[in-house]
Amino acid sequence: MADDMNLIGAINHALRNELQNNERLRILGYDIGPVGGMFRATERLFEDFGEDRIIDTPLTENGLMGMAVGMAIAGDRPVLEMQFLGFMYNAWGQLVYHLSNLHQKTGGAMKVPVTIRTVFGGGIKPLPFHSESTEAWLMHLPGIRVVCPSTPYHAKGLLLAAMRSDDPVVFLEHAKLYRSIRGPVPEEDYVLPLDKCRHVSRGTDLTVLTWGAMVHVSSAAAEKVDASIEIIDLCSLAPIDVEPILESVKKTGRCVIVHEARRTAGPAAELIALINEYALEWLKAPIKRVTGFDVTFPDTSTEEFYLPGETRATAAFQAVLDFAF
Amino acid sequence: MRYEFQLPDIGEGLTEAVIASWSVAAGDTINEDDALCAIETDKALVEITAPCTGMVVEINGAPGETLPVGTVIAVFETEKPPIGAKIAPHAAAAPSKPPEEARSEATPIAAAPFAAKAWSTAVRATPATRKLAREKGIDLETVTGTGPGGRVLQSDVARFAAGGQAGTGNRFSLAPIAHEPGQTRRPLTGLGKVIADQMVRSVTMIPHAASAYRCEASRFVALRKQLQERLGVRISFTAMVMKAMVPALQKYPAFNYSFDDTTNEIVIPPSINIGFAAHTDDGLIVPVVKNCEAKSLAEISAEVDRLAEQARTRQISVENLRGGTITLSNVGSHGRVEITGGRLIVNHPQAAIIGISRIRPFPIVRDGQVVVGQCLDINTSYDHRIIDGIAANLFIERLVDVIEEPGIMLGL
Description:
Chain A has 13 helices and 14 strands. Chain A has helices spanning 7-21, 45-49, 61-73, 92-99, 102-105, 135-139, 152-164, 177-180, 214-223, 242-252, 267-279, 303-306, 310-322; strands at residues 2-6, 25-29, 54-56, 77-82, 115-120, 145-147, 169-174, 182-186, 198-201, 206-210, 229-233, 236-238, 255-258, 288-290.
């Protein structure tokens, strides 16, 4: 039995299921109570599960992060809603000093099972710091998983897996995807692996690596190019599921990476380094990146020029396909 | 810009040469290809021509002086250095001979002493193409790139592997023949182009060795006459030699092999398919008589005549031109009778070619007496990678045995 849902609906559905399933699960964050969350991810949860489970907090990101760490050490399964990735920078101290490294620092004795849900990405014309794609900073931090769903189906399966994982997980929800796509989401309980990528399409001429909203941009761009294109949705940004990526690039000999994040030292740089290290001999063309620009995310009037779109993606695909080898 | 011209390696394993004379002095202007100097090697006196048009800034090496290959013997100031030239570092600003002190303290980056090859002349190829070349055992330096900026493409590697590249080395470049009044030109097209490419492929890929033999063929001639009378059909000498080749090829099958240059494999065919050179107005065509081991002499002869006629009228199907395992060329079929031999070119990827002369009277020695024999000369060229001279001798001896005493074919 599967209902058609949008991505925010799938998140709400997964949270509700897990609140019922695990009484040690608590959600904390601001605006998540009676308001039901900035994007309504926690709609009606406060009413149904009460203030002990749905903890509406003041606006203090670093304090929230520390609180979640303490709760997790004490045996809870905290799910922390960081309203925007751009607001989470305030919580970098507790994230780096404690959450990400307690497990390693205690020789594996201490588990810190915190799930941090946070909203990232542009395309909905919000205010400053609401559109950040700084997942590369998270990927650079050892000790945490970074997960990013691109469909409602994957949102539910990955979020349930995150909430049941003993590892700290940063769960990136793309703002533009919340209400722009719908898809079937099974009613029953299911989890998806936290460290596996997935093939959006299979092809033989070009490998496209992407995640989040760019999965949909890449798919649309691939339709406009006369070639057999294999699109891989990374799903997990940390750790990177490298084997299927290398296998695909060895097959196609070509690769384009599409991400919304800024270019310099962005996630594409790491992916290219991995391919360079382990699949160089198979390359028929230089790898291209379709990315945001090296500027602060612009204001609403120009965000469409900043965000990689079909035109830029198509041009990169074609350029790599046309490279004489 | 300034261009430093090094004493070139003119081949033959030359490592040094003696400057014999100079045709220019410092300060002279010179045109590309004008005489620059003469050098003397162990083997020859060689004229070296100017690599570019410009002014001679400096010459190095007095007549009689021995210099190692690679020594800068002349420095030019030129607008147009040779293609692929390594430009002198910081040429315009730097004195041509920096003081000793400066030289020893020069940073590696400025002097680039370890740069085996300048980036501008290095091979350009994608990793995938390099991998392909490595797998095929091909040095990319020797492959001419046809991609953007001279990039070597996988298709270039494949063409090279098939022997289809004219300039296979970078030691020599091909200079065009100057256009002059009264001269006319026509492009090589069609069959002529196919033949030219095939010949270049053959001589480029195959290390040729050759041997020549003479045999006495009067019994062979008599047999032909007898067969024609008894069977009432025409039997050609070409067909008779083909038939005679069969037992020799069965005994010494290396002559029937082919060599796959893309995989370095000897290919052993299941049958004997003899190609024969047929003359047409446009050039040679080589029809193939397949499965000679399973055909009678009359069948082979009829097929040779039929295919030769189809070739002459250019009606022959491609199928009848493919699959040859060895080639027979009746070099005596045209022209005067005196021809005794010549170097044959193996038809790549086959391993050998046999050439036969016309049968004509020559003095021979028999039982200590000079007598007139009906002589047939046999020449062969073969791929020395897989056939050596002794094997060639054994093979031809077996062929000669049959020609001189055709009856023994009954026992073979």
